[in-house]
Amino acid sequence: MREKVAVRSRRIAGGGVRRLLWWAAALVGVPAAVLAGLSQGTPALVRFGIGYAVGVACAWLLLRLLARRAKPEIPSLADLLTLARWMVGALLLGSVTMGLAGSSGPLAWLAFTAALLAATVTDWLDGPLARRLGPTALGAALDIEADSWLTLWCAGAAVAWGGLPWLCLAPPLLRYAQPLLDLCAGRLPHGGGPWWSRVTGVAQMVLLIGALAPVAGPERAAVFGVAVWPISGAQLVTLLALLLPRLIARGRKAALGAQ
User: Fold this and answer.
1) Is 192 helix (H, G, I), strand (E, B) or coil?
2) 131 contacts 5 by C-beta, under 8 angstroms
């Protein structure tokens, strides 16, 4: 069974990880574009397409950047799942540029369902699948950045049409200081962290995806209005606690090098 999965994975990834990027972009983007055009009209479809294209371009640039720091490796089906998670983030970006605010139509339900599945099913499957098929350094780094991209645009959509305040964008944006430090040090971005950072991260994702659910009501507004401040605040403090030691160590190293 394992050999059959490996052979099928090699066929899917035969053109390299950039080919997987286009497969993932089509897999997520085509049904979303159809729904955008049918439910919102041509102008909305154009705006959605612009946002989605920006998301795909960001994935392409990230792959080029990471590939320079990773040795050549054969991608697998796990990388397709990871890239599909990135494309769900691009779908949410398209929903923001389209102006989906206040909508409870089919595209809003698609965006919510895709975000929920991306944050749960694909995120749970691609790790075990990568270990079965053979993990790669590029795939591991891409997995981390796909998670961050999805979180960022879950937050962006939650602000644009989910009713959350701008505060919830601060932790996903601050998190990008970590891969920047890794890349400046000449290594691939890496994840991990203490258990309490995972707790605040999960709480943040539950908050954001819950805010994307296209349902309305005073109870919903009251719950999210109260929950966003402690959850986003805790995640912001967590990221600062993880970043400050790295920044201090980098500053000391720079000072020693200048002597």
Assistant:
1) coil
2) no
CA–CA separation, 82 and 28 (whole Å): 12
Contact 32, 48 (CB under 8 A): yes
Q: What is the pLDDT of residues 24-52, one digit of tens each?
A: 999 999 999 999 998 888 999 999 999 99
In whole angstroms, how far apart are CA 131 and each of 76, 229, 249?
10, 37, 33
In terms of Cα–Cα distance, which of 27, 5, 152, 180 is closest to 76? 5
| Residue stretches of the chain with pLDDT short of 70 | 1-15, 101-104, 258-259
Instruction: Spell out the long-range contacts of 108-116 with Cβ–Cβ below 8 A and sequence spacing 24 or more.
Output: 108/161, 108/214, 109/214, 110/31, 110/32, 110/35, 111/32, 111/157, 111/212, 112/209, 112/212, 112/213, 112/214, 114/28, 114/32, 114/88, 115/88, 115/150, 115/154, 115/157, 115/209, 115/212, 116/209
Contact 51, 95 (CB under 8 A): yes
Angle value at C-alpha 233, between 114 and 142, nearest 5 degrees:
40
Does pTM surpass 0.85? yes
CB 211 within 8 A of CB 161: no
Q: What angle (nearest 5°) sits at the alpha carbon of residue 28, between those of residues 27 and 33?
A: 110
Q: What is the pLDDT of residues 165-199, one digit of tens each?
A: 999 999 999 999 999 988 888 888 887 788 899 99
CA-to-CA distance for 20 and 26, rounded, in angstroms? Answer: 10
